[in-house]
Amino acid sequence: MKKSVTIIILLLIVVVFGGSMYYLYQKNSEDPVVYETEKPSKQNIVRKAVATGSILPLEEVLIKPNISGVIEEIYVEGGDYVKSGDLLAKIKVVPNLNALNDARNAIDEAKINLDDQKRNFDRQTSLFDKGVISKADLERAQVAFDQAQQAYRAANKRYDIVKTGTTRGLSNAANTLIRSTVSGMVLEVPVEVGNQVIESNNFNEGTTIAAVADVEKMIFEGKVDESEVGKISEDLPLEITVGAIENMVFDAVLDYIAPKGKEENGAIQFEIKGTLKKQDTVFIRAGLSANASIILARADSVLSLKEALVQFDGDTKEPYVEIETSEQQFERKDIELGISDGIFVEVKSGLSENDKVKVWNAVEPEEEAN
């Protein structure tokens, strides 16, 4: 019995020893781990924030009528250049019956008063010729008669204005003739002949006849997220890209950042505006969607390295890399970093262009082949 137990123990020892030897043999027969290396390079690094928006005129003026009526004629269309005072459209007045009736009654009252003053003046003239009244009395009658004539003429003009929108002697200043108040390009004419329009007054903003703007002065108007607004400030440079204009970047300057944000789709957005620099060769249409890159920092032709190659000390949190000293032999080297664009980071000191930096992820030959 003891002999059998001894044999079993010896067999177990042999099996364990053999398995260990086989494991060590397999371990030693594996290919060694190979680390790749990369060299630093010269890069232009730009740290930026992105805003989405559109291109709009700096000043867009909406031309509205001072009288209600129906569009009789339109003299311009979108894309036309106009000067201040140029005729845009003509309105045919549709008179208000109450105003027309009041104007008609005013004429009748003025006529009655005129006839009365004429009779009085004729009577005073006759008495003056007979020497009954003084010249002062005659002159007072003359003044009253003249005033009655003036009131009658004014009542007739008022009636013409209510009925037609103009009157004799005031055709150039008629409310029915809609003229541009500024010089620029007509962006749109949202009305057509036959459309009814409403005058602009204290209670109604009125119907827009045309929109006119100086297209030489364009701005970018967009929005940035609250996570980015703390990084930006006025006077920063912008790089504007317009989707409809390929391979073109337009320079601008950030002029305005809204002091108050607005909630949109669960996020707080802040409005920004930037003035585009004048472009003589490219015509930018108003309303085009665009993206603005807000340049927070920039470094041109600086020694840079992929951020993925940088390691950080667990205790000091200082950055470092591992430099190859010989074949697959590396040593740690502390470095000083500058700005980063999320892919490349500027290396201010600690590296040269000839250094080979260890790639963190070890690559085994078999995996590399696959």
Provide a quick synopsis of the model:
This protein is an alpha+beta fold. 27% of the residues lie in helices and 36% in strands.
Description:
- The chain contains five helices and 22 strands.
- The chain has helices at 2-29, 97-129, 135-164, 226-229, 365-369; strands at residues 37-38, 41-57, 60-63, 69-74, 81-82, 87-93, 177-179, 184-188, 196-197, 210-213, 218-225, 237-242, 249-257, 262-264, 267-276, 289-306, 311-312, 319-326, 329-334, 336-340, 344-349, 357-358.
- The strands form five sheets. The protein has a six-stranded antiparallel beta barrel with strand order 2-11-15-13-12-16. Strands 3-10-8-5 form a four-stranded antiparallel beta sheet, with no helix packed on it. A four-stranded antiparallel beta sheet has the order 7-6-4-9.
- β20 (336-340) and β21 form a beta hairpin.
- The relative contact order is 0.19.
- Mean pLDDT is 84; it is low at 362-370.
